[in-house]
Amino acid sequence: MADGIINVYKEKGYTSHDVVAKMRGILKQKKIGHTGTLDPMAEGVLPVCLGNGTKLCDLLADRTKTYRAVLLLGLETDTQDTTGVTLAEYPVAVTEEEVKAAVLSFLGDYDQVPPMYSALKVDGKKLYELARAGREVERKARPVKILDISVEEIALPRVTMTVSCTKGTYIRTLCYDIGRKLGCGGCMESLLRTRVGQFELKDSLTLSEIEKRRDDGGLADHILAVDAVFLEYPALTMKEEFDKLVHNGNPFYRNQAEGDSPAQDSPVRVYDSQGRFIGIYALDREKNVLKPQKVFLGGNK
């Protein structure tokens, strides 16, 4: 069974769940998970976790993401993208300067109302299920953050933007909100995710490329080891006589491991004496021991 993370290029028309199902068939293993959904019309980077790496799914879903989006002004739809039913059309009588100013005004903290066509739940029901049943419910605005936003090209009524943002940001809704601010409406015409944390577009592989590398024996070179996600943390290696502590998920004293002393409050990567990655540990100040925070038990064997 493969353990780690593979950078998949999700193509248009596939859901994130479709990608996972196809990866299970390609790799002949069940323990596979994705790290946050991409709409079927969107494409680009989708880190997929394998084996023990599936414990990283939630963590990677929290990482900063970067997108290239095309905003189509003058059109509003029920899905906030061009796959939806048209709700309204407006003339686009704005200048390039007005477009740039409206786009850049969303930089920073931003309260965003999630779209009805989303997987968020209200009273136990997914919003898109309610939307398909013809119901619209009130949604509370959620705080998100646009870390960086720039206009790459303006060819009205289209505006190409690059956006870096925090978890939970809907680029469809950002396009809708920019259109509203300009007074002419807008929706998302296309979306390409170019980065999730350390995973970049240039390193991603399509499903057919993954299948080819499986057949030619080169796929292992494209599977990132679990511990590579945590390289910013200092590393400790257990002394052999204390391996049993970490193999059983127990805390240990600092002098039972070798390596640089971590900075105060810094998590650490812990390896057994054979160099196998155990997990992420943090200092318990009261007991003066390092306690497990996330255990992978040799996830990079």
Structure description:
The protein contains seven helices and 19 strands. 20% of the residues lie in helices and 35% in strands. It has three domains: 4-63 and 198-224, Pseudouridine synthase, CATH 3.30.2350.10; 70-189, Pseudouridine synthase; 231-295, PUA domain (Archaeosine Trna-guanine Transglycosylase, Chain: A, domain 4). It has 301 residues and is an alpha+beta fold. The model has no long low-confidence stretch (mean pLDDT 90). The termini are close together. Strands 1, 2, 3, 4, 7, 10, 11, 12, 13 and 14 form a ten-stranded mixed sheet that branches. It has a five-stranded mixed sheet with strand order 16-15-17-18-19.
Summarize the main sheet. 10 strands, mixed
User: How confident is the prediction overall: mean pLDDT?
Assistant: 90
How many alpha or pi helices? 7
- The total number of structural domains is 3
Quickly name the level 1 CATH class of the largest domain. Answer: Alpha Beta
Helix content: 10-25%
Structural class: alpha+beta
Q: For the record, what is the CATH homologous superfamily label of the largest domain? A: Pseudouridine synthase
Low-confidence spans: pLDDT under 50, at least 5 residues?
none
In whole angstroms, the N-to-C terminal distance is 10 Å
Strand content: 25-35%
